[in-house]
Amino acid sequence: MALGSNMGDRAGHLAYAREHLGKLPDTRLIAASRVEETAPLGPVAQAPYFNQMVLLETALEPAALLEHCRRIEAERGRVRRERWGPRTLDLDIVRYGDQTVRQPGLTIPHPELPNREFWQREIAELEGEHV
Prior knowledge:
With about 130 residues, this protein is α+β, with helices and mostly antiparallel strands. The chain contains 3 helices and 7 strands, in the order E-H-E-E-E-H-E-E-E-H. The chain has a single domain (about 1-130), classed as Alpha-Beta Plaits. Strands 1, 2, 3, 4 and 5 form a 5-stranded antiparallel sheet that branches.
């Protein structure tokens, strides 16, 4: 799971996400990568992001996990306006074990995974801790 924030208390938003993801039903947070500050992606001018990857163990199905993620984002003031725009909190399901998911609003593995070097670094960090 990828966490990102570039509005308000960026570190606080990520901490909130880690705490609440670990409290989801039948879910536990196994590990978290270090937090990285990255330049924003896309055409919209905005502040830099704090990004982090977390490893979850969950019995939730991907669509149910996504619903919980959207709720956590909303609790931190996330309003979905423009694509690639600034956000208080962004939670992306990047991978879900070896599963491939193609549903409206949910694609796993995340289609941007090959394009985001910081995600790849953070995943490598987590995989190095849990080989």
